[in-house]
Amino acid sequence: MAGELSVAGADLELIDVRKDFPGFTALDDMDLHIPAGQFFALLGPSGCGKTTTLRIVAGLETPTQGRVLIGGKDITDTKPHERPVNTVFQSYALFPHMTILDNVAFGLRQRKVEDPIAKAQAALDLVELGHIGERRPQQLSGGQQQRVALARALVNRPSLLLLDEPLGALDLKLRRQMQIELKAIQMEVGLTFLHVTHDQEEAMDMADTVAVMNKGRIEQMGAPEALYDRPKTAFVSKFLGQSNLFVGKVVDSNANSVSIEVGGSKITVDKKRAEKHEGTIAIGVRPEKATFHESKPTLGADHVLIGPGEIIDIRFTGVSNQYLIEVPNVGEITVFAQNVGKSPVVELGAKVWISWKVEHSFGLRDLPDGTEDLG
Amino acid sequence: MKALRSFWSGLKRGSLPVYALIALVFLLTPIFYTIVFSFNKSLRRNTVWNSFTFDNWTHICARQDLCSAVGNSIMISLISTLIATALGTALAIALVRYRFKFRSAVNFALFLPMATPEIVMGAGLAGLFFNAGVGPGFVPTVIAHVMFCLSFVVVTVKARVQTLDPALEEAGRDLYANPSQVFWKITFPLLLPGVLSAALLSFALSFDDFIITYFNSGSVNTFPKFIYVAAKGGVPAQANVIASSVFLLAIVIVLATQISSHFKRKRLQHVK
Amino acid sequence: MAFAAFGSSAPTTQGQTKSGRVVLALLLPGLIYLVLFFVIPLVSLVLTSLEAPAASGKIGEYVPGVDFANYSYVVTKYWPQIARSFGFAFLATIIALLISYPLAYFIGVKVRSRPMLQRMMVTLVIAPFFISFLLRTIAWKQMLADHSPIMEWAHQVGLMSPSQSFIGSEAAVVFGLVYNFIPFMTLPLYTSLERLDIRFLEAGSDLYASPAKVFRKITLPLSMPGIISGTLLTFIPIAGDYVNASRDFLGSSNTSMIGTMVDADFLQNRNYPAASAMSVVLMGIILILVTWYVRKSGTEDLL
């Protein structure tokens, strides 16, 4: 079955694509290349331009400028119904006046493919809904509708499958389950998937490559682990997980590292993990990479040490405890500590020092307020 | 005392259903009367109950002029419904789906005919035809009927277009349907219920119209005109027969669609 | 046929000309119709109302002019009809609203849990649309005629003095108008009450509002759109109606309305300028009243 649906996906290229709407620019000279067969996620908050990108690829919007290429072929001026692209819509957009089987067979019939019903049935079987072909969309649950929408797109064997927040309407548990299924189907059919979402966990979980979008631009692109480990902008560091960010002037710089001074503490980052090496820069660390100590520890130069500070809030989230520590002249720092039974017994108001390994620091290109320090 | 209070609260609770029942009976009484008197073996005037007969139903066209008036009415209503529905549906789609200059002006212009009393529209059109040297007759009547049905069609279809998710049409385009296929395979079937009810409303308005018709039809007789003129001397029982059969037909159609959609919905819920 | 050219976007230059063509194709036929057979007739009505009798003095012949004499003529001669038309419309609209509201409330809110019954009741409300309103009015005329059982009873109980007839009175005309327009009032009321979220009412009672207060503060304001469109759909046609007031139906020569005079001047006396002036007066007063009413109720977007 999978063999019948699988085709080599094609690669997608956006060259210098811009989209202006009256009063604002949704996409700002975007360049993007998605290799064939990839699961690619566009991640960003609402209004960041990710859906516009997807609609331009589908042909539902015309770019103000720029070219769109699929498999090397320029399709910028090709109409939606003539593009080798199919979409799973956010609302699923199943035709309410047709049965499920007719919905899935719609694209096949339009293209006059032979034996549309048998192929549609096979696609429904793939998403494990082969038994409900005669029902109407209104009779299905959200998760079932989602899978039908997927089958309806997949059955056409598009070079590129577009997914517009396809899991957004599902509840959390179903969403996680569908993520696994969707990923499995993608591996099975080997198509190029372009997935648009605002759910970072979903993007990180499923995609080979994630592009984080903000204000009509791609802020950073890469493998999920790399993005998380080394965010390059303040936006990415905050949108993907949480970060503690420190801003200060570079006071120390050698072959391997740069250091800034914040409120009397020295914060160091490896040079190869920093985007900027002079002036005022921001250095960050993930809360789970930091630990705290009830007495001042003795640590080498391979550690950053801040403190003392006061614990002002403790949250129990099950797997870990989240501590909020106020350090005079530095600000608030969040530290996650695993709940492994031997967690340090601290109470609100306790005096603690915070430390992490220098190799966990990351240096940003911009400052937390989004501006870049030009001086 | 307690009994009195519970009686009073029971009365209060029961009063709304009783009121609704009385109001509905009030609405339906003249209909009932009209149907009953279609079975009256009337003398010259069908005003007093004489005796029961089927004669009026078996000899509907005993009054030839009545039957030809009804024929005219059906023709006029059919033609004007067709034209008004086509024009109105196009307007409704444009008004909901497109942003253009003067959109609110067009909306207002389409509201105005509904805010115009029939007598004004009727006299205005009759004056126009008179000034243009076109005598009243069949065509002016159809033109007038299309005009007063148009706004009602727009309002009805607009409501339906508004409920239509644009993503459905986009999905159609995405699935290789060209613009005209999208319209005929997706947009139109989904709008159809709205278009049909607009057409029904249009037909009902047109069939029952008297004032505008009176001003523009000249020597062409219609069913309402026949009744209006006959009211002076006495309406023949055959008019009741025709009105009753139109009524019963319409009610049966409405009830049938309602019952079928009720059970369809129930079945849908059941499967879920 | 490019219906698919919709879209939330601002079209590009290419898209704009295309979707512009589509909009024109959709709009133009209807708009041309509207201009030809609605706007022009209204303008010609105004022009006709300013015409003067032809020098030949022949009945039915007039020359274009700017003669406001027609207006002073109709206003001085027909002011009772003008007053009656709007008085009847006002009264009948209020009575129809009072009768329709509880009915619409019952169908739209109370019967909501039983959709089948609700549909049946709505069908009964619109049932009168399916049968000639002229015949229904004649039915009332005969049911309420002198010596009819209902009137015999009314005389006996003393509701009316034996010498009085109901048919032919102003009360009978208002009665007929109310009856004929109840469905036009009930339907929009029902539509807005049917959408009313019962949780609002429950929240109201939860917050210690008495039933009367819940009605005044929540139900009534939320059903305002229905009240506005219901009253408009009732008031406007009633002001222009003259069938109920006709002596062959429920009225007499003492109940004539504006429409009666337009009919007489236009179709019998062939005094087109007077009939036109009368129509313009009717339309003008309605427009002023409706504008004031819509502004006052703050529902301009309703249109």
Describe the structure.
The complex is a heterotrimer of chains A (375), B (272) and C (303). Chain A has 375 residues and is of the alpha+beta class. Chain A has helices at residues 2-5, 50-58, 100-110, 116-126, 142-154, 172-189, 200-206, 224-229, 234-239, and strands spanning 12-21, 24-34, 39-43, 65-70, 73-74, 85-88, 160-164, 192-197, 209-214, 217-222, 244-253, 257-262, 265-270, 280-285, 291-293, 303-316, 320-327, 331-338, 351-357, 362-363. Chain A is built from nine helices and 20 strands. In chain A, the strands form four sheets. Chain A has a six-stranded mixed beta sheet, sandwiched between helices. In chain A, strands 13-12-11-14-20 form a five-stranded antiparallel beta sheet, with no helix packed on it. The longest helix of chain A is centred in the middle third of the chain and has 18 residues, at 172-189. Chain B is built from eleven helices and no strands. The longest helix of chain B is centred in the N-terminal third of the chain and has 35 residues, at 2-36. The model of chain B has no long low-confidence stretch (mean pLDDT 88). With 303 residues, chain C is mostly helical. Mean pLDDT of chain C is 85; it is low at 1-16. Chain C folds into two domains: 4-49, no CATH class; 67-298, MetI-like fold, CATH 1.10.3720.10. Classes of the chains: A alpha+beta (375), B mainly alpha (272), C mainly alpha (303). Chains in contact: A-B, A-C, B-C. Chains A and C meet through loops of A and loops of C.
CATH class of the largest domain in chain C: Mainly Alpha
**What CATH first level of the largest domain in chain A would be assigned?**
Alpha Beta
Alpha-carbon distance between the two ends of chain A: 61 Å
The profile of the biggest β sheet of chain C is:
2 strands, antiparallel
Give the count of structural domains of chain A: 2
What is the string of helix and strand elements of chain A? HEEEHEEEHHHEHEHEEHHEEEEEEEEEE
Mean pLDDT of chain C: 85
- Could you say what the CATH topology of the largest domain in chain C is called? MetI-like fold
- Report the strand count of chain A: 20
Residue-averaged pLDDT of chain A: 88
Report helical residue fraction of chain C. Answer: 55-70%
- How much helical structure, as a percent, in the residues of chain A? 10-25%
Could you tell me the radius of gyration of chain C in angstroms? 25 Å
Q: Which chain pair shows the most residues in contact?
A: B-C, 91 and 93 residues
Second CATH tier, the architecture of the largest domain in chain C: Orthogonal Bundle
